[in-house]
């Protein structure tokens, strides 16, 4: 594999990594505030559908994006009510949302579009298209660095840049702002905040709104930027991989970036490796290669990253009285 | 932040001496059927250290939580510096200049001191400026009150005493001029407690008002100016500390005369009930904890084990009670050897006549989310009196629990109440009742009165002595030297996993002190 092969591989890695990264950062806000979010998958799926459906109906992809964020936030608020106000089991609430999204999108999709749950293909101008960065063509002529800029860095949709920008922004918010300090505190010891006169409920709601927005963007990316329509269960477990990546990243934004990129590379490599003859082994079954990223997740999680200590109060509903 | 400080600075100068810092009038609060505070009146003078004593569950913490805005009172009026206020929440209380240091620290463990101090009082959306301001303020507070803590240290790495300082700093940073401390010395070593008292005195001298909640009379006598006594949700009275005595306070707390001294007769030791021979215990990670310990306990005597916490007492108890297998050595009950191999050793040991009140009632003695009657039979579910075969007779179990509640004066007298809702003393009585109300030959009891109030301590001590007088053997382990000396007939001193010496309980405190530090008093 030469240099020319690596850039397209990395390019598709980035595209695979983006929805993971958005969902992972979304989960980071939620879990840092002390709320387990198994429902990342469902929120992304709901958002993907909303984006594709609204874009198809209105002919404007930005309406689709808004719809995606709205749907995802609504789902996030259901999770918030169940786990913050009603002190329910956060895992169960998340699982319920996943099922709701899985069935709900197909059901509503079929009743509107009569295509068995998929939405119509969006024409190119009703999708979030790639952006050419300035001087891409010119710099592309420069050897080595040029192609990296032209083909790898330039030419992605705005969402990709947004996702990568979300990492330093999140790191900055967490460490340098009041909101970040409180978010970190509420996930560790909510009582410390409550006795300092800060509302635990309000903070956790804020965190879940941010989670909702990011999941919404991730969903919209899948159906209106990476793809051109919605199809049943199109998230295909990305929400869960994002959750694994979050643990893997020890709930830290920069780690989340590297982890999601690693998963992206694995996913991209997986497609490349299908049908390739290996020395000695011969052709490896497609299913095995497809399973590779997941196997690696398990192996790495089990043995290589050491203990990942979650925020101390994660999963525990906050009860004021003893 | 800046406004708060100017406020605080002005208040003492404006203060007419007659206006008190805090005035509570007719405050009541109930949690469901439990009335925690009944028509409480309290006046706290400015520039004073005001103690509030009462047994566990007397309503002290609830009252202070109302003042701090953590709970809202059902009825009553609150005046702060003479002005009537309705405290909505903790941030409102903080605005009024009321700060609280909770019994269980409200700190974020993986944050730095600085982050904990500014949490909730950041002032600005960005942290940089507030951090700088807080750093400056911490230096000032450290100079003024001797509250030295490294602002960049992580809380986890601090000692308990330092963590408490951070809590005090948090309150002062928010401009508190009334500082409430809830059982502040429960977790401190005596030296740390002394340091705390010096700080509190200094704060008072600088114009702050301190409210100290405790159930330790010694502290009240040592440091407070005025003391209010609470009992079962009511305010019994307020007296000047210099006009009162521990005995009088204890009587006010409990509502009757309390014996602060234990009365017991000479022991009449009988046959050896428990024999421990050359016992060695190594913990999970291979560290030797008990080294070649031999001891025996006879019927009708109490043998105490004294020592500073962490010198192998816990492991010794766990080994004897069959919870953790020893590496070497032998334990015999009534001459019968305990087989440490296989499962169910603890159960087997119980069948041999040993009852065990574990050191930590929350970790080992009770399931706090269970109802009282469930805990009352925990570990003895196989007893035929609780039903036949696999079917549990709930009514029998509850009746049995009710009987024990009366025998051991457990309050509230409700076997259906969740165990977590009982006070520490009553929880301990639940464990004691379960272990003592049966046919036993030897009682092994660890820290019988840790976190237990005076009235209950007296009761528990009496029960243990009564058991001895019935001719049972008792092995007592406690880190409270006073307790070991008061109860035991013989005292073994444990240091670094070994029994270093045996002393009579009448030996001097100095002799015990030397032995507990691993020095042989005979050689000194």
Automatic annotation (TrEMBL), chain A:
Organismal lineage: Bacteria, Pseudomonadati, Pseudomonadota, Alphaproteobacteria, Hyphomicrobiales
Keyword list (alphabetical) reads: Cell membrane, Membrane, Transmembrane, Transmembrane helix
Q: Which domain of life is it from?
A: Bacteria
Residues passing through the membrane, by range: 6-28, 91-113, 153-174, 205-224, 230-249, 256-273, 285-305
What is the name listed in the Swiss-Prot or TrEMBL entry for this protein?
ABC transporter permease
Broad class of the protein's primary localization: membrane
Membrane topology designation? Multi-pass membrane protein
Localization in the cell:
Cell membrane
- PANTHER family from the xrefs? GUANOSINE ABC TRANSPORTER PERMEASE PROTEIN NUPQ (PTHR43370:SF1), SUGAR ABC TRANSPORTER INTEGRAL MEMBRANE PROTEIN-RELATED (PTHR43370)
From TrEMBL, chain B:
Provide this UniProt record's keywords sorted from A to Z: ATP-binding, Nucleotide-binding
- Single Gene Ontology MF annotation: ATP binding
A Pfam match is: ABC_tran
Q: Does the keyword ATP-binding apply?
A: yes
Q: SUPFAM superfamilies given for it? A: P-loop containing nucleoside triphosphate hydrolases (SSF52540)
Can you tell which superkingdom this protein's organism belongs to? Bacteria
Describe the location of the ABC transporter domain by residue ranges.
22-257, 274-521
Instruction: Please give the CDD domains that the UniProt record associates with this protein.
Output: ABC_Carb_Monos_I, ABC_Carb_Monos_II
Give the family this protein belongs to, as stated in its UniProt record: Belongs to the ABC transporter superfamily.
The molecule here is called Heme ABC transporter ATP-binding protein
Classification from the root reads:
Bacteria, Pseudomonadati, Pseudomonadota, Alphaproteobacteria, Hyphomicrobiales
